[in-house]
Amino acid sequence: MLGIWPPYRARAQGCHVLKEADLYPPVKAYLQRQGYAVKGEVGAADVVARRGDEPPLIVELKLGFSLKLFHQGVERMAVSDRVYLAVARPASDKALRANVALARAAGLGVLSVRLPQGTVEAMCDPGDAGPRRSKKKQERLLKAYDRMRGDPNAGGATRHGIVTGYRQDAVACAQFLAVHGPNKGAVVAKWAEVKTATAIMRNNHYGWFERVSTGVYGLTKAGRKGLEDWGEG
Question: Could you tell me which CATH number the domain at 165-228 has?
Answer without folding.
Answer: 1.10.10.10
